[in-house]
Amino acid sequence: MTAEETRALLAIALMAAYADGRKAEAEREEVRRVTESLGVQAGELNLPALHQEVLLKRIDIAAAAAALPSAELRQLAFELAVGVCDADRLRNEVETKFLADLGAALKLEAPQMAEPAAVADALVTLPLPEAAAAAGTAPAGPGPVVASTAAEGAELDRMILNASILNGALELLPQSMASMAIVPLQMRLVYRIGKAHGYELDRGHIKDLLAAMGVGLTGQYLEDIGRKLIGGLFGKVAGRMAGGLARGATGVAFSFATTYALGKVAVRYYAGGRTMSTQMLKDAFGAMVQEARGLQGRYQPQIEQQARTIDVNRIVQMVRSS
């Protein structure tokens, strides 16, 4: 993939982030942080400048689409845009129109657009599990309930580690829609931890908690696809697993660490009766991410093994049964 093709793909992803017309400062700052962090890694691409060009509408869909000569790259561009639009919630009418216009500019047929949209919709609208978490039966009351036995605490630890390994493995898959499962899995992990401590959570609360920790859902998805594109995981678009394993280390560390940190901080938050301030949550999350990065190498063999056994066609079923 050439630098110009990578630039066009990221431009389309950024357009998708702004498609709903909301120009909130928080959204600007999130995307700015993503593009600047990617710019340090990319070297050849001036991503902060690209961000400004997209924000000021100096690049349009037609121009970006024209820079993608192959059918595979055009399909990838559409899938990335769907993922961005659905990263924080089911897309709205404005975002749906943007995707329709994008599909037309990319010269995609209806089935090429319908399949990734259906996968994304299924993931983002999956109901949170009704059953109590594996740590034990949670009471119906408002909590907090601290794990009453060492076994229950150990089960929560295993659940967090397993979710971290799974999300790290998803980073290694060459299929672009695999990354769509990471955010729902993280949300469901937080839900189960809250449930284990006596709290019935909805999606809004979980999103607010993740935001308080400094984890923006759209920004997280953008950062993930940016790393994959610039790191070369999609160098041949449908790259082989060996290439993904060789080049996906940064993404694996990111998703493993963020999932692990989210889980650990969520345990502290709900066990303590949800009394941690926003700053305390951010500080705890940042410290735990660093700790998790040090652990990731220990579990790399399990991550790679998991990646070899994941059937991407069953991602929705995987998330539903998690």
In words, what does this structure look like?
With 322 residues, the protein is mainly alpha-helical. It folds into two domains: 3-123, TerB-like (Orthogonal Bundle), CATH 1.10.3680; 126-320, no CATH class. The protein is 68% helix and 0% strand. The protein is built from 16 helices and no strands. The chain has helices at 3-17, 25-42, 47-55, 61-66, 71-85, 93-105, 110-124, 150-171, 182-196, 203-213, 217-231, 241-247, 249-271, 278-296, 300-309, 315-320. The model is unreliable at 131-141 and 235-248 (pLDDT under 50).
Indicate the percent of residues in helices: 55-70%
**Tally of separate helices:** 16
- The whole-number mean of residue pLDDT values reads 77
Residue runs with pLDDT of under 50 for 5 or more positions: 131-141, 235-248
The gyration radius over C-alpha positions equals 19 Å
Strand runs, count: 0
Biggest sheet: strands, sense, closure?
A: none
Report the span from N to C terminus: 35 Å
Overall geometric form: globular
Report the portion of residues in β strands.
under 5%
What count of domains describes the coordinates? Answer: 2
Structural class: mainly alpha
Following the backbone from N to C, one meets helices and strands in this order, namely HHHHHHHHHHHHHHHH
What tags apply to this protein structure?
322 residues; TerB-like; globular; mainly alpha
Layout of SSEs?
Layout: H1 3-17, H2 25-42, H3 47-55, H4 61-66, H5 71-85, H6 93-105, H7 110-124, H8 150-171, H9 182-196, H10 203-213, H11 217-231, H12 241-247, H13 249-271, H14 278-296, H15 300-309, H16 315-320
